[in-house]
Fold this sequence. Notes:
The chain is α/β, with parallel strands linked by helices. It contains 6 helices and 5 strands.
Amino acid sequence: MVRPTLARAQANKRSRRSLGGNKHGKSNSGHGRGQGRVGGVGRTITEQLLKQGKAVRAMVRNEDEPAQALRDMGAEVMIGDLLDLDSMHRVIAGCETMYFGMSVSDAYLAATVNAAAVAKHHGVKAFINMSQMTVSQMSITATTPSPQHKLHWLAEQILLCDVRATDQRAPG
């Protein structure tokens, strides 16, 4: 059985993106939910993986022309939302590799944690994150006034963290 590569994990209500699709399409109604569109990088990755004969799964928010274009390229297309854990489980289950790139937004931290936690749960071997230059210029002591950039930086710290936490919950 060939395990698919999840080509895109991207969500942003402003840029209309999610785990698949392309940059064309209607805007979200402002609900702050992940949406299905892949921009230039995600589309290029999808095309390259398919040309290499890899199985590619892409998540889109809506069944539309961009979703059909992905199918026409040969990708497995699934409807989902980065902020909905049930749909993330459906999309990520069975994938070995996951590409995550998301524009800065107020939903970035939650979407990143959801994607990373579900990927870990399903044994994804490689979680590939697309960062942004602004975030790479930040540190624990030097940040930016932008709350969205801070969320992006925090999310990347979670992805880079190699700390084994202990959870002590009260009985009952």
